[in-house]
């Protein structure tokens, strides 16, 4: 799948909220939450668009000093397992390199095996658990963190994954 990744704009919020609800059910972020994020100087949000310019995914993070914290990443169910989430994650990592960020962290549901596999493939490691983190069902969250993304080991993995995705096009 050849998705185009670009910065999220206010005009994307309606579509993002629809996808948010599709992905997360009734316990999802509101329009107001996304509008607030787009006004937040720490926040960096992206949209994945298909060839017809339809929204098929989105992701966001905050840059705080030397660390980025991924706040959300979602792909429309019809476009999962096609490299869209990987491209969104690359957009976040690319932006981290541009902004001299060293570490990336996130929380992910313990039951979200697909997301955990994506993050592990990209060098994230589980460093702990937040008990009862998700309010909708009291599910635990894994806390995941990268090593310093400027280390050669991380950059080598990153470049290899970039090349594999480019070849898949």
Major sheet details: 7 strands, mixed
Rg estimate, integer Å = 15 Å
CATH topology: Aminopeptidase
Shape: globular
- Give the helix/strand class: alpha+beta
Count of individual beta strands: 7
Please explain how this structure is put together.
The chain is α+β, with helices and mostly antiparallel strands. It has a single domain (4-168), classed as Gcn5-related N-acetyltransferase (GNAT) (Aminopeptidase). The protein is 37% helix and 28% strand. The chain has 5 helices and 7 strands, in the order E-H-H-E-E-E-H-E-H-E-E-H. It has a 7-stranded mixed β-sheet with strand order 1-2-3-4-5-7-6, sandwiched between helices. Strand 2 and strand 3 (55-64) form a beta hairpin. The longest helix has 17 residues, at 152-168. The radius of gyration is 15 Å and the shape is globular. The model has no long low-confidence stretch (mean pLDDT 93).
In a nutshell, what does this entry contain?
It contains five helices and seven strands, in the order βααβββαβαββα. It has about 170 residues and is an alpha+beta fold.
């Amino acid at each position: 799948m050849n998705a185009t990744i670009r910065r999220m704009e206010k005009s994307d919020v309606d579509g993002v909220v629809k996808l948010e609800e599709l992905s997360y059910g009734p316990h999802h972020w509101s329009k107001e939450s996304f509008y607030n994020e787009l006004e937040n100087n720490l926040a960096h949000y992206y949209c994945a668009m298909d060839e017809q310019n339809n929204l098929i995914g989105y992701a966001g993070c905050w840059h705080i000093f030397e660390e980025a914290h991924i706040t959300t990443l979602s792909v429309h169910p019809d476009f999962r397992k096609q490299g869209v989430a990987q491209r969104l994650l690359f957009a976040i990592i690319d932006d981290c390199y541009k902004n001299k960020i060293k570490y990336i962290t996130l929380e992910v549901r313990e039951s979200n095996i697909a997301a955990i596999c994506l993050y592990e493939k990209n060098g994230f490691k589980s460093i702990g658990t937040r008990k009862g983190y998700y309010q909708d069902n009291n599910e635990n969250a894994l806390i995941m963190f990268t090593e310093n993304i400027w280390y050669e080991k991380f950059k080598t993995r990153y470049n290899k994954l970039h090349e594999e995705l480019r070849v898949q096009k």
